[in-house]
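Postdoc handover notes: sequence design on the structure in folder B. Input tokens:
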């Protein structure tokens, strides 16, 4: 009896696969993509590919030309650097609206917890920042920003996870001293370690 083959058949699964291939550089900048090519290349179900394409256009990973052709966007090092600056500025602004001392211990616990691997600590740290606000719109916006590059890079790249977590610990220390400039710089450094392959591609 043959084993069943799992075929990605939802828009989210297909979108994740295409985004992964763009971030890993397997789909190149300005490369034309079609439903048939993607279906054949990755063994995907054709039905959700159009929806996935639309989502990736809205996220900036694909560009729809006037000819209706779709091409892969050019993700340059400047794109990633500007993204990191924007993400850190958003996270910094979130802390401007809360009682910071109330959450310092929770942030520290996330980063020193022995039962989470370092990559989980990084993601939980960023996720917790927007959860503090408890505003659905902000949480969604923040998650979408994280999901552009940080989350995929944590999933797909090997990087010095301890160094990234250590920078976050220093960021929390700066937050405790109300040194917001150092806090932002440490956040940026932690993210740069994760994004290094995209920044230096």
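Designed sequence:
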């Amino acid at each position: 009896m043959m084993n069943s083959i799992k075929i990605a058949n939802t828009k989210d699964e297909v979108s994740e696969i295409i985004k992964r291939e763009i971030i890993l550089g397997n789909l190149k900048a300005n490369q034309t993509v079609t439903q048939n090519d993607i279906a054949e290349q990755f063994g995907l179900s054709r039905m959700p590919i159009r929806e996935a394409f639309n989502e990736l256009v809205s996220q900036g990973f694909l560009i729809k030309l006037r000819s209706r052709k779709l091409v892969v966007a050019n993700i340059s090092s400047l794109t990633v650097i500007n993204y990191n600056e924007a993400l850190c500025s958003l996270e910094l602004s979130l802390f401007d609206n809360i009682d910071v001392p109330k959450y310092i211990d929770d942030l520290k616990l996330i980063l020193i917890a022995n039962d989470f691997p370092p990559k989980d600590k990084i993601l939980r740290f960023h996720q917790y920042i927007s959860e503090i606000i408890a505003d659905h719109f902000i949480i969604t916006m923040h998650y979408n920003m994280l999901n552009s590059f940080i989350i995929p890079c944590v999933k797909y790249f090997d990087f010095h996870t301890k160094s990234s977590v250590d920078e976050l610990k220093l960021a929390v220390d700066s937050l405790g001293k109300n040194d917001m400039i150092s806090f932002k710089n440490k956040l940026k450094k932690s993210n740069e370690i994760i994004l290094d392959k995209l920044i230096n591609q």
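Context for whoever picks this up: Confidence is low (pLDDT under 50) at residues 1-5. Don't rerun without checking with the PI first.
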